[in-house]
C-alpha cells in the first residue's frame, strides 16, 4: 500500500511545515546563464528556501527502467541526471517523488526524496534536440488525474507520464495549437508564448505561464491554447520561469534571473511580491496543489484530508485534525452519474482521526468522496481517480 506522506493536518503547524513538505524549486547557480544547482523545498508563504534535496554535486545513483539496473552517466552530456540545463519539474505527491527532465534531452528522471535514488526513464517518445529551441521541454506539472504532464516550448509535443505496474509509460497527446482568438498573443511564437512553466486545475486543464508573463489556458479536450491575459504588477523585464499553485489556490511564480517570488491571483492575474529572499534563481516550481480546487483550499483550513487522489490499490486514508469535528462522520462515494456507490461511518475522537478505508467493488474511474458530519453538513468533497 502506498502511503501519502503529507496529510493536511501538517499544514496546521504553520507555513514552514507545509512549505517543507509539498512546494519545491529547481534552483540554479547565481550566474547569468542557466546552470543547475539543486532541487530544494521552498516556503511558498514567506519566500524562503528550505532543505536542499539533491544538488549538482550529489553522488547520483541512477537506475535504468529499461535496462533494469544501475547505469553510469556521462556528466559532460545533455543526457544525465545532473545536466547543466534543466527547466522542468513536477511533484508526484502519491509517491513522494520529484520528476524532472533536462532541457536538451528526452530523458525523464524520477528522484526518490527519501533514498535519493534516481530512476531513468529512457524516453523515445519525445523528440528533443539541443539545437532546436522549439523542442526543448520547459514545462512540467502533475495533473489532477495523478499523471505527470510535460510540454515543449512550441507545444508540438504534449507528454503524459503515467505509472502502471511499477513502470513509467510515456504517451504523446498531440500538438497544442493557438485558439483562433489569440491574435498577436500567440502561444506558438517565442516572443509571446515560449518558456515558463505550467500548472493544472481541478478539471485537468493546464495554465501555461510563458516567460513573457502571458498566460494561456490549455484544454486537454481539444488541445487548444487560449490566451487568458498578461500578469500585471511585476517588475520590468521580470522573466517568468517557474509556476506552482500554493495552498490558498493562488499561483506562485519565480524567475531564473535572480529575483523575488510573486503570488498571482489566477482570476485577475495581479501579482504581489512575497517577502523573503530577493535573489533566487529558480528555473521551475512544483507543488501538490491545483487551481480552482475548492475542496483543497477548504480542507487545508478545516484540517480534513483524503489521500491519495489517485487510488491504485483501492485504499484511501481519511485524516482529521480539527477540534470542531466531533462524533461520527459519514463517508459517501458517488460515481460520475451521482449514484452513491459506497458509504461508511467513521468515528472521530477528540477531533482526531487517521483511518484507512477499503473501497471495495469500485471499478476504474472518477468518483467524488464526500465527508459529512452527524447532522448531515458537508465538510468536504474531493475528486479521486480509481485505477488498476
From TrEMBL:
Signal peptide start and end residues: 1-19
The family database entries (InterPro entries) matched by this protein are listed as: Quinoprotein_ADH-like_sf, Secre_tail, Vgb, WD40/YVTN_repeat-like_dom_sf
Q: Which Pfam families match?
A: Por_Secre_tail
Task: Give the UniProt keywords, A-Z.
Answer: Signal
Identify the residues that the record assigns to the Secretion system C-terminal sorting domain, covering every copy.
306-384
Alphabetized SUPFAM superfamilies for the sequence: Quinoprotein alcohol dehydrogenase-like
Question: Can you tell which superkingdom this protein's organism belongs to?
Answer: Bacteria
Instruction: Report the protein name in the record.
Output: Por secretion system C-terminal sorting domain-containing protein
From which organism does this entry originate? Chryseobacterium soldanellicola
Amino acid at each position: 500500500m502506498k502511503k501519502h506522506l503529507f496529510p493536511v493536518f501538517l499544514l496546521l503547524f504553520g507555513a514552514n511545515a507545509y512549505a517543507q513538505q509539498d512546494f519545491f524549486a529547481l534552483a540554479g547557480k547565481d550566474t547569468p546563464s542557466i546552470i543547475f544547482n539543486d532541487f530544494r523545498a521552498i516556503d511558498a508563504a514567506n519566500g524562503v528556501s528550505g532543505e536542499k534535496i539533491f544538488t549538482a554535486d550529489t553522488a547520483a545513483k541512477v537506475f535504468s527502467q529499461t535496462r533494469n539496473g544501475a547505469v553510469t552517466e556521462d556528466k559532460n552530456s545533455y543526457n544525465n541526471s545532473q545536466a547543466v540545463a534543466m527547466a522542468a519539474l513536477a511533484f508526484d505527491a502519491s509517491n513522494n517523488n520529484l520528476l524532472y527532465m533536462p532541457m536538451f534531452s528526452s530523458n525523464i528522471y524520477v528522484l526518490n526524496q527519501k533514498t535519493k535514488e534516481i530512476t531513468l526513464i529512457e524516453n523515445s517518445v519525445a523528440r528533443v534536440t539541443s539545437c532546436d529551441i522549439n523542442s526543448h521541454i520547459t514545462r512540467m506539472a502533475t495533473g489532477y488525474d495523478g499523471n505527470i504532464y510535460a510540454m515543449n516550448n512550441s507545444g508540438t509535443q504534449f507528454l503524459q507520464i503515467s505509472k502502471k505496474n511499477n513502470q513509467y509509460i510515456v504517451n504523446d497527446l498531440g500538438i497544442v495549437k493557438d485558439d483562433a482568438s489569440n491574435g498577436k498573443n500567440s502561444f506558438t511564437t517565442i516572443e509571446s508564448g515560449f518558456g515558463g512553466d505550467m500548472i493544472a486545475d481541478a478539471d485537468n486543464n493546464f495554465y501555461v505561464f510563458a516567460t513573457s508573463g502571458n498566460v494561456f489556458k490549455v484544454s486537454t479536450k481539444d488541445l487548444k491554447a487560449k490566451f487568458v491575459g498578461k500578469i500585471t504588477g511585476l517588475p520590468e523585464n521580470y522573466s517568468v520561469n517557474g509556476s506552482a499553485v500554493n495552498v490558498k489556490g493562488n499561483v506562485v511564480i519565480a524567475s531564473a534571473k535572480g529575483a523575488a517570488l510573486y503570488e498571482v491571483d489566477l482570476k485577475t492575474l495581479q501579482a504581489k511580491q512575497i517577502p523573503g529572499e530577493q535573489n533566487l534563481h529558480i528555473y521551475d516550481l512544483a507543488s501538490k496543489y491545483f487551481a480552482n480546487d475548492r475542496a483543497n483550499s477548504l480542507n487545508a483550513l478545516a484540517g480534513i484530508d483524503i489521500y491519495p487522489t489517485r487510488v491504485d490499490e483501492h485504499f484511501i486514508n481519511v485524516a482529521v485534525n480539527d477540534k470542531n469535528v466531533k462524533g461520527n462522520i459519514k463517508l459517501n462515494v458517488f460515481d460520475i452519474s451521482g449514484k452513491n456507490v459506497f458509504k461508511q461511518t467513521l468515528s472521530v475522537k477528540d477531533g482526531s482521526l487517521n483511518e484507512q478505508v477499503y473501497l471495495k467493488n469500485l471499478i476504474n474511474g472518477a468518483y467524488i468522496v464526500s465527508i459529512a458530519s452527524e447532522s448531515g453538513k458537508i465538510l468536504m468533497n474531493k475528486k479521486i481517480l480509481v485505477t488498476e
